[in-house]
């Protein structure tokens, strides 16, 4: 029997016997356990004794703070199609094709590599046993001691009249040979397939494989006088590779059927489409009248076809040098300008 404490008096209680303590605990906690079993609340919420215990008992989704409600962005005003296109071009500007610092390739019997672009270009050729290439006379820079150099003179009245090259150099492998242009400029590789009618200026030729042939072609008088090219140019035939030189760097333009493009005279390297000489800025009139009036002349190309354009004008540079040397009037740089 448990001790009873009278009101207003304090008596120290003695501990109950273990058996009686266990029985009393069972009597006290039995109703609470029954109520807990029938309760709808999770056990963690009933038995939690502090904030840490309650937080630990929650699931990750319950413990995470609620995300703020999403707000839809304000609709931007719709722009006209032309302004939309301009905005897209500003956001995604077109990439300009850059000239590769090297140009490597192969042909039957050898390989080639163009380096030091684009104003001091050098063409290096590696030839196998018996393979050969040809170049303009005086283009060789250095070569292996195993290379056989054969100079050929092709004299004819036609070449003499047209001013074509009377001689060329042929290199027979095995070994390496490097060739370069006379003036500072670039070297481009042109693949001749026998189907595209390519025409090149006489000063553009540097080297080619043996299979490529150059045939002299006469232009019209107006084209010869005002295009910056001579009366006679070269038309390419055969199949193979030809390497052309330029004064300055080179740009290539590919024209679609019916597309037109204007090139200033004196900047042509090679072309595979038709062109006509006209007065700069249009307005008609003959080339001779434009020459008398001092107006500039341009070449109007019409596609389909491609155009290789050099960025510098050789004739203008020669005039500048003459003026700088004192042979062009005022003399010196100021006189040339």
Automatic annotation (TrEMBL):
Pfam families: AIM24. SUPFAM superfamilies: TRAP-like (SSF51219). Keywords: Mitochondrion. The keyword Mitochondrion applies. Residues 39-113 are annotated as: Disordered. InterPro entries: AIM24 (IPR002838), AIM24_sf (IPR036983), Trp_RNA-bd_attenuator-like_dom (IPR016031). Residues 39-65, 72-96 have a biased composition (Low complexity). Its main location: mitochondrion. It is found in: Mitochondrion. One of its GO terms (cellular component) is mitochondrion. Belongs to the AIM24 family. This is Altered inheritance of mitochondria protein 24, mitochondrial.
